[in-house]
Amino acid sequence: MAFSKLMTIFLYSFTLAFLIQTSFGADPLFHFCSNSGNFTANSPYESNLKTLINSLIYKTPSTGFGNGSSSLVQNQNQQTYGLALCRGDVSPSECKTCVSEATKEIQSRCPYNKGGIIWYDYCLFKYSDTDFFGKIAKTNRFYMWNLNNVSDPSTFNYKTKDLLSQLAQKASMNPKLYATGEVKLEESKKLYGLTQCTRDLSSADCKNCLDAAINELRNCCDGKEGGRVVGGSCNFRYEIYPYLLKSN
Ligand SMILES: *[C@@H]1O[C@H](CO)[C@@H](O)[C@H](O)[C@H]1NC(C)=O
Ligand SMILES: *[C@@H]1O[C@H](CO)[C@@H](O)[C@H](O)[C@H]1NC(C)=O
Ligand SMILES: *[C@@H]1O[C@H](CO)[C@@H](O)[C@H](O)[C@H]1NC(C)=O
């Protein structure tokens, strides 16, 4: 099991390394369908999921985060839980576009799965038939990296880890569980970092989640000009170019 998960991460990362060069912001980065079971068409679960999705599309954009659960039918097995999170610099209208697209896309990719997760540059959406709020998601992670190598990996890796560790601390102290920052590299280059957690986590768990992701830097993006470790509860990104939206 552990082996096949690692393989999945590896194989998909490999594919993504190629995708990353051709994809645009509006395409999903990645998704997983859960294997917790299927629902049937026109079932109470389906109707609860649709209600949940509509409420998240409505309530997420104003703050960039929404969570909720839905069980119109009083039946334990039909309850669905979900959340949506937009990247911290994304405007309410872009957030709404992204969450709408994400919920539509995951339903077409995992049509009858009781759970799933999908990531975009601007947002993530996940849903499940079990209550996951406040718990760090340890499975369903993926890596992305820039194919270009840096010229001085040991200094670069050190600076990257140092910046991201500071941003993990900073994000955990921000009510939005989000932080960005930059440091100077040699010549006029800069390193741009971002950390973010889903807001169902406590401050301490946000820090724990990010520290665990940062510990994967070596596996993910050792000596690479850019990289991300992305999970269901937190993610980081670093690049040597600015990627945040300028208008915000
Ligand atoms: C769920 O549906 C998928 C196809 O959408 C199918 O491959 C899978 O076997 C089903 N799983 C269960 C537990 O019925
Ligand atoms: C980066 O380094 C790896 C390992 O040394 C090498 O295989 C790869 O071709 C390099 N990538 C580029 C873009 O030069
Ligand atoms: C959102 O998540 C928190 C846990 O962080 C939970 O206490 C709360 O009930 C959830 N909200 C909804 C509407 O489900």
Automatic annotation (TrEMBL):
Keywords: Repeat, Secreted, Signal
Compartment annotation: Secreted
Keyword flag DNA damage: no
One Pfam match: Stress-antifung
GO cellular component, one term: extracellular region
Main localization, broad class: secreted
Domain Gnk2-homologous: 27-132, 138-243
Family per similarity comment: Belongs to the cysteine-rich repeat secretory protein family.
Name the record gives this protein: Gnk2-homologous domain-containing protein
Organism: Medicago truncatula
